[in-house]
Amino acid sequence: MLLTALITTGGTIFIAELTDKDALFLLALATKTKVSVVFAAGSVAFTISTAIIVLLGSLLITVVPVIAIKLVGGSIMLGYAALEYYRFSNEERSVDEREERLLEKSAGGVWSIFIPAVLTLIALDLAGDATELVTIVFLARYQDALVVFAGAVIGLVAAVAVETALGNRLGTVLSRKRIKYLSIAIFTVIGVTVMVTTLLGA
Q1: Domain that holds residue 88
Q2: What is the pTM (predicted TM-score) of this model?
Q3: Exposed, middle or buried: residue 32 (CB in 10 Å: 0-12, 13-18, 19+)?
Q4: Average per-residue pLDDT in the chain?
Q5: Number of structural domains found in the chain
Q6: Orientation angle between helical segments 2-18 and 145-166, nearest 10 degrees
């Protein structure tokens, strides 16, 4: 059960991260500065943001009935999948002005890019995205903060490794459109599974 939770959480978040807005930022940053710095920044940022999300999710579970979190979470995942299917566009992949300014500074020293990159990624992750939603849903489903935290961090760090290693070549190696559709399919399957098992009392 624990291994299944770890693999499911990590695998789903890995795919979700490859399609998130912060993935584009990491890809762009990896083409302008040292890969090791970008990987370290991404790993540190996502570990911190995941810890915060898991902590808040754990508190939420103590206040809101788990069954309600599961049903609402499953519904949101299905809604997210539907929205992504109908609104897949280049606009969602754009890098905003704040990120552009950071990219312009990437030619500086290691610390001049590392700390701002960490802070930017934490802000992007906590602002509300797919990985945050998945983490909370799996936290309600498995009710094991340590396992969900470990799975989420493993999935995110693995995604960062792929994004920084391939840089802007990711688009030619892994079609974003195909990854997006795979992400949509996984969100749909997980959303339906969460809702059905919850309603059946599994």
Answers
A1: 2-199
A2: 0.75
A3: middle
A4: 77
A5: 1
A6: 40
